Metallophosphoesterase (Candidatus Mediterraneibacter stercoravium), 296 residues
Amino acid sequence: MMGIRIFLILAAVLLVAVFLEIYRETHSFRVTRYTVNSGKMKGFGDEIRILFFSDLHNMEYGKHNERLFRAAARENPDLILIGGDMLVGKPDVSYDPALKFVQRLTELCPVFYANGNHEQRMKEEPWKYSFSYESYREQLIRKGTVFLENESREITIRGKKLVVSGLELPLVSYVKFRKDRISGSTVSESLGFTPPQQNPDREAYYILLAHNPTYMDAYKEWGADLILSGHLHGGIARIPGIGGVITPQVFLFPKYSGEMTVEGDRTIIVSKGLGTHTVNIRFMNMPELVSVRIHG
């Protein structure tokens, strides 16, 4: 009887500890810093500082996201890249928290924005969302945000040319229990842009914003130097040495879920994201703002 009582007490303590950890992880964030080395940066004599935001889902860290903004400002970025899902794509949910925060980010440096599935559903089904996507987009553009909707944009930072492409996948590419057939040529056709390895400008540094890492093989085939993704929220829970547990499309143990991976000349960074929606759980999976330093 005493053994059962001790077991129940320990189980209760463990359960409380788990709930407290989930609460902590859904109400705080950290800055994850990665250093990327590239032969294209040799002789540059400096570093390029990029902040990558993904999957905020209207989360607010302090009033008007003051804590998150201050963390971003401390990184002194040259460029801010957004990988989508800054808002929550539901008819009864305001996009105002995301709007005000992204507008403020333009005070720090240029901001490039590629859509995730939440923006995409608002865009593809405008009648369902009272045509709010166009309003959201136009208000951000007026404040200086550059939207990359299957588009590419060049930017020169202290004499170094970067080419940033934003891949926009249709909603069908996010359906549960399904994986579309997407190849590098699909990426080229969507972007209307020559794969980097075939581009005559070999010295430019190519970055691809592609929200869903499920199709990473296609992104790698296309050939960007740096691929930035999110969407998976780190796999909801993470197991040390293994990674994320489950994806929104209900695939288990995804290969890329919240880390930096170097494969040949390609660097892949998947953000664990900054917020949650629907399943408001994180365990051993702290939300993160990703800070990237690119060196030679």
Notes: The chain has a mean pLDDT of 93. Helices lie at 2-25, 66-74, 96-105, 117-124, 132-142, 184-191, 216-222.
